[in-house]
Specification:
binds magnesium ion, EC 3.6.4.12, globular, Rossmann fold, binds adenosine-5'-diphosphate, 22 strands, about 725 residues, DNA repair, OB fold (Dihydrolipoamide Acetyltransferase, E2P), alpha/beta
Amino acid sequence: MRTRLEDNFRPADRKNLAQRGVHSVTDLFRFFPRRYLVPGEHTELGDLPLGETAIIQAEVIKVDTRRMKQRKGTITEVIVHDGTQSMKIAFFNQHWLGKALKPGLTVVFGGKVESFRGQLTLASPVWLNRTEDDHEWTPEDLNSPFPIYPAVKKIAQSRLWSSIKTLLTVAGPEEFEDPLPKGLRDAHELPDLRTALEDMHRPRTIEDVERARLRWKWEEALALQTEFAARKAKLADEKATPLLTQGAKSRRFDADLPFTLTASQVRVGEEISEDMAADRPMHRLLHGDVGSGKTLVALRAMLTAVDSGAQAAMLAPTEVLATQHFHSIQTFLDEQMALSPLLSDDDQVTVALMTGSMPAKERRELALDLVAGNIDIVVGTHALLSESTMFSDLGLIVVDEQHRFGVEQREALRAKGGDTTPHTLVMSATPIPRTVAMTVFADLDISTLKEMPAGPKDIATHVVPIVDQPAWYVRVRQLMRQTAEAGKGVFVVFPRIEPTDIEDPESGDVVGQKQGIEDISRKLSETPELAGLTFGLLHGRMSTAEKDRVLADFVGGDIDILVSTTVIEVGVDVARATMMVIIEAENFGVAQLHQLRGRVGRDGSSALCFLLTEMSAEDESYGRLQAVADTLDGFALAEYDLDSRGEGDVLSGSQWGGSSLRHLSILRDSEIVAEAKTIAEQIVAVDPTLEAVPALKAFIRRVLPEDDAHFIEAG
Ligand code: ADP
Ligand code: MG
């Protein structure tokens, strides 16, 4: 019995199969047709209806290849006969067919019925040499969907197909061990593995294929959710130090907050304190729209840790962000916990910032303070992860913008907890659609900040097509002037610093130049509408001191219009800015545009945002801009983004990127994913190491990469 790949394919073929990811019989069975030709009812040559797809079986009578007169290339004409009638079929530029289709062979052809010079023919049909196939073609076969496989170099479809069919009949039972439990299959009327494989490779009806496809989705959903459930169970076995809720410092902090917490902040705060009070580590994701108050939630959690005598560390992806967090935490604490003569030193909260650019000596001192327990809260970049950074008692880790860190990095920090595992809170700067949260982050518990502290923001957003509507651009500049004259600040956001060449996509020749940020700033300042106003420039190539000075001038009102790159995306808080003009807006992603405009109207006053573009309403990216203009709901935009970019994109950098999950769609299959989660949790609850379900275990290893870094591109 020829049950191995080696028995069916020569080494050269196996190399070509390997290029398509086929290394074993199991892989080959899961090498599914790309599509199917679904034949109509007629299979007699005499009675083929024009325009329909037909599958016919006929004998090759004559094959003739010649060069074409009018065009370059060859034409191969094949005359076939089915016992009563004949037909001429033409193939273009496939001269090798002369060798494959020999007179006398019985061949199955599938394709669309067309009329050519008054005679019926099939247009460039797919074909299969029946004589080479050990499978007898019955009239029923000719009415069955005809699979078309992805091309494999140097392996004819017919040979591939017949090998798969042969192997399906001779392969041993180990090839058909089903990763889906029988109870699940029965409940959802899913075919077992063998039936589903047969249905993919030799379906009787297209419904067979649909039914099998549903099964592949279930397999993947169950694999994913079981893996997550198993990881969660493993985490649950780790020991953590319970962190007391609401000690003196937390109480004092909350007591005179200048505002009331939103209902979401209260609820999420409770979710977090409940987790931290347990003796197993918290593993929670906090997400919410820009400005929903995540930082405050994180700070309250850190104070809970401090109250319990533990330290808290906050990890940020960039120095700018870390610095920003450090300052806002410090400001919050200064205001809330101002030194009172009645408080002893013990009642103070010490906060420190650790970054890579710190002088070595300072960093060494800070490291000593950390290990001595003199620091309660440390905010930092990757510097926190280095081996020289140690803690006296690390109780809580907050990871900001979690998608920018890999699991190894988070693990490095978690390992600094000593005997116990610190509690972990990861934050996402932008909202994550429910479907994504449920799949990509299924091993985390999820907290969502739903409402905005200041109520829904009022940022009227408009798309301005500057080529189609030049007058609107003039109007925008007039509004900029009015805003500046009213003492408010205007942001102009521009996508690049330096001018860049525009290359012709065909020739690669430089055909023009896109302006840099200085050009755009100068040009704007020279327009009649903006003449006489003060412009400032802000971008990432300026020194920190320069940036600080420019920002201070903008905050103080000495600069009317600040032309900036996306450095303002993170953390810049200028209460007097009420207008933003984003130039070449099509260069930014949906989430990023939403983040950017969150920088205006910070003081609660109504604000304006204009998305300038050279695109027209018909262009695809115009639709994205319109979507941003249409809603201020970051959750709705996140869903839109997922929908329009497609999950391939969204997940390209995620755990799924490295996986071979091919059938499950996180957009469309959320119900399957949700049900699979319940079942997976039941499986893991009784059998955490999956001993009783070896086929499922093997399938998980097959489709999910071992490295479990889960990233998600947020913008
Ligand atoms: P996020 O990190 O979610 O984008 P922040 O935590 O930076 O949001 O909060 C945005 C602003 O709202 C900050 O200035 C913060 O002090 C303020 N803020 C947070 N919570 C509240 C609240 N409950 N009421 C009023 N203002 C709040
Ligand atoms: Mg924040």
